[in-house]
Amino acid sequence: MQLLLMKRGGQVIYSGPLGRNSHKVVEYFEHPGALVNDCFVVWLTVFRRNKALVKELSKPPPGSSDLYFPTQYSQSSFDQFKFCLWKQWLTYWRSPDYNLVRIFFTLFTALLLGVIFWRVGRKMESSKDLLIIIGSMYFAVAFVGFENCITVQPVVAVERTVFYRERAAGMYSAIPYALSQVVMEIPYVFVESVIYTLIVYSMMSFQWTPEKFFWFFYVSFFTFLYFTYYGMMSISISPNVQVASIFTASFYPLFNLFSGFFIPRTKIPKWWVWYYWLCPVTWTVYGLIVSQYGDVEDFIKVPGQPDQQVRLFIKDHFGFDSDFMGVVAAVLAAFTVFFAFTYAYCIKSFNFQQR
User: Fold this and answer.
1) pTM
2) For each of the chain's 355 residues, which pLDDT tens digit applies?
3) Where is the ABC-2 type transporter transmembrane domain (predicted)?
4) Phi, psi at residue 308, to the nearest 5°?
């Protein structure tokens, strides 16, 4: 171990090895005139000796080869993913302000909408009643989805700052980190979806069959999940939370406008109908309506028309096909995967770190 000792003014008093129990330093200061006469001479001697030692050690011995590492990181991508997943688990578990807030909001929203639309599923005598029922399902899912998108953004922004530092230190690469955060959201959104589905489905009195309950849960779960990943993606392409919030909020009106609820697909102009199919909320509405009422053959009153079966009214008014649920399920999963991998790709490609 080396010691550089200086006094006020920057003058070097001692520079050299400490030695065992600092005996080198003691010997130096025991030398007569160490502090007055030969300080610079001793320092210069030690400096030259250290410089010669560095030069000698910098030359590799004959026959040796340069250091070589087969990979950039010490662990494989899968091991990095496991480490990051464990890290994210601890981070999320220690973030009750994030997880409890969104679960409480889901619980509050489900109870509020359940009270507002109490047993609305049993009140279906006309097309107006049916549209109210469909609107209740749409708004119930949309409220929680938008909230998930908003609440996840600050969390991802903070974690991204930590990621920049740890990636620079060579701890792990971007893709394992991003995928671990994507996976970590799944169990929390699953619990959120279970709470929401049980409350809303029972309070709104939709038809209790295993198939319809499963489809309602499936659509709700993937809707909450793709909204969460949409919020994460917005952070990955934005320098800060403020810009990400503006970006996501700018698409909310388009999601509502082209969802197929306010303006049915049959009424959308042909030059705009392409966005209807690219809007993720479209498939949420499609799945909710068809899974619950696509097979109902009860007759309802339609203003200006003869009484019509529910399934035929849905097909004529919204353009929904009751045999399309398989495609709807696949598209909802595809949007979820798309937003998740876009987040991972952008985290890897973009760097908004400010120094």
Assistant:
1) 0.79
2) 777 777 776 666 777 788 888 878 787 777 655 565 455 666 667 677 777 877 887 787 777 777 666 777 778 889 999 999 999 999 999 888 898 888 998 999 889 888 888 888 777 788 888 888 888 888 878 888 988 999 999 999 999 989 998 888 888 899 999 999 999 999 999 999 999 999 989 988 888 889 999 999 999 999 999 999 999 999 999 999 999 999 998 888 888 888 888 888 888 888 888 888 999 999 999 999 898 888 888 888 888 788 888 888 888 888 888 788 899 999 999 999 999 999 999 999 988 876 5
3) 80-293
4) -135, 145
Number of Cβ within 10 Å of residue 30's Cβ equals 8
Angle at 310 between CA 309 and CA 315, to 5 degrees: 100
Q: Helices marked H in 21-173 — which ranges? A: 23-30, 39-57, 77-93, 96-116, 127-168
Say how many C-beta atoms besides its own lie within 10 A of residue 128's C-beta: 13
Residue 302: both structure tokens together: 């339609």
Single out the residue of 220, 83, 87, 91 nearest to residue 152, CA to CA: 91
As to burial, measured by CB atoms within 10 angstroms (0-12 exposed, 13-18 middle, 19+ buried), residue 51 is exposed
Other Cβ atoms less than 10 A from the Cβ of 3: the count is: 15
Q: How far apart are CA 291 and CA 240, in angstroms?
A: 39
Closest alpha carbon to 233 in 101, 338, 103: 338
Report the residue count for the chain: 355
Q: Give the CA dihedral 268, 269, 271, 272, nearest 10 degrees.
A: -30
Give the 3-state secondary structure of residue 36. coil
Task: Give residue limits of the domains in the chain.
Answer: 2-54, 78-349
Q: Would you give the distance in Å from CA 308 to the centre of its chain? A: 45
d(CA 46, CA 256): 76
- The pair of structure tokens assigned to 329 is 């399920």
164 within 8 A of 158, measured Cβ to Cβ:
no
Whether the CB-CB separation of 315 and 243 falls below 8 Å is answered with no
Tokens of 322: 């009751």
3-state secondary structure of 2: strand
Angstrom distance (rounded) from CA 136 to CA 148? 19
